[in-house]
Amino acid sequence: MLNVPPPAFPAPRSQQRAAGSSRSKVPLKPGRSLMDWIRLTKSGKDLAGLKGRLIEVTEDELAKHNKKEDCWICIRGLVYNVTPYMEYHPGGEDELMQAAGTDGTDLFDQVHRWVNYESMLKECLVGRMALKPVAVPKEISSISEEKKQLNGMLPEKKLLGVSAKDLTPSYDWFQTDGLITVVIYTKQKDMNAELVIVDCQDKRLRGEIIVNEHSYVLEVDLDHEVEDFFINIAEKIGKVEIILKKKDNVHWKMLGQPLESHNTFIKRKNRGLFYRKCKLVSKTEVTHDTKLFCFMLPKSTCFQVPAGQHVYLKQIIAGDCISISNPEGNFKKSQVQALEDLFFLAAGTGFTPMVKLLNFALTEVSSLRTAKLIFFNKTEDDILWRNQLEQLALKDERFEVQFVLSEAAKDWMGKQGRISSSLLSGFVKRSRKDSKVLICICGPTPFTEQGVQYLKDLGYSQEEMHAFTA
Ligand code: HEM
């Protein structure tokens, strides 16, 4: 139902609200809680208002439904009648109305990409947006076309547009007695394991390949069961093989039935989040109000979380496991290539995305001369990983950490205060004139915004900063 970021796990920064907005939850009328909504969706009432029919909605039709009493919103190509949900929306009616009669995908993602609207609004589904007759960019294929069986031939490519045609990955497959090999030609040099995400469970295969801002998905209900799978990547030529071990050594007549997203190549941000269930393997106390949760991906999933990226967690209410999404985030490793000076400005759990990045920079970036962390917290007890950070500073002379407290006890010998221009000017200094520098910032939105502003005032360029936000 609702995707709840678990309480003690640091929330990804992308969950922070956009600058300057007055967004917050509103008090809901009695009888309008999430549980009440769930009850209503299960009551059998016709919430979509179409007596069970699904229709194709044109843009003109969508635009007509722009009033509170008759409000349709399109998210990722599907149109929902949100009028019944209006009073249940925790962000309030006015927020929801911003997207009335339009494609609300970007707005929705900006505020709460992790909310599982598909499940919450299932009963409000009106239908699918009609494809524009002249639209060459074809981001989501029509189901009817996709319901053809895959017969081993290369299916028609889903094009982004004529110019993008040649960049669209394609796939093929072949078999031996014991194996099925699905080959994806990504047409992308420097393919690597961080760009390949595969889930294969209960005859359902989903492979996603990240190609810059886009992603290519293969999604098939396989012809037969498989026992296991492996991934083989020919990095230089950009070929990815998903090798499935057949459960029974029978001859497959076809790879399987294509599912909704099969063979599509679209912008990553336009894909819904894909989750798989994960087991909690340990829970460790880090500070008085922070715990470290370790989850294990199921055997049927293979992916890595690249440095600087994050995942979303979803917990089904009253459920007993956590689901974890694909990795997301706009940080690119190329930002630290040939880097000389790396600075981290972190507030509280904002340090989270920096852990992996710091490790990556110290071990993989040979040009690195300095890595400095300035870590803002309220009190000493709030400092995450203090011991480990101090140890690291002793062990690696390139690394330095400074703790700054806003509510320091009397005996605190370190720095006090909040983020300020003078503090930053003393801390963020190039190791040599014109050195290649990157300053990463993560914390609550006002902290991040102020930090960026101070750095701009100090003369750092946009390319020299990375704020971990949406
Ligand atoms: C597209 C226009 C929408 C806007 C501008 C919007 C805005 C907001 C805002 C401002 C909040 C309060 C967030 C906070 O500060 O915690 C919120 C919460 C929420 N909205 Fe929306 N919303 C939109 C659409 C939707 C839709 C279609 C759903 C469908 C299920 C939805 C479900 C929720 C839920 C479940 C929350 C509570 C989230 C949480 O507790 O983390 N919203 N929304």
Automatic annotation (TrEMBL):
Gene3D superfamilies: 2.60.40.790, Cytochrome b5-like heme/steroid binding domain, Nucleotide-binding domain of ferredoxin-NADP reductase (FNR) module, Translation factors. Keywords: FAD, Flavoprotein, Heme, Iron, Metal-binding, NAD, Oxidoreductase. CDD domains: cyt_b5_reduct_like, p23_NCB5OR. Residues 13-24 have a biased composition (Low complexity). Residues 1-28 are annotated as: Disordered. Its EC number is 1.6.2.2. Residues 166-256 form the CS domain. InterPro entries: Cbr1-like_FAD-bd_dom, CS_dom, Cyt_B5-like_heme/steroid-bd, Cyt_B5-like_heme/steroid_sf, Cyt_B5_heme-BS, Cytochrome_b5/Flavoprotein_Rdt, FNR_nucleotide-bd, HSP20-like_chaperone. Coiled coil: none annotated. It catalyses: 2 Fe(III)-[cytochrome b5] + NADH = 2 Fe(II)-[cytochrome b5] + NAD(+) + H(+). PROSITE patterns: CS, CYTOCHROME_B5_1, CYTOCHROME_B5_2. PANTHER family: CYTOCHROME B5 REDUCTASE 4, CYTOCHROME B5 REDUCTASE 4 FAMILY MEMBER. Belongs to the flavoprotein pyridine nucleotide cytochrome reductase family. Belongs to the cytochrome b5 family. This is Cytochrome b5 reductase 4. The gene is CYB5R4.
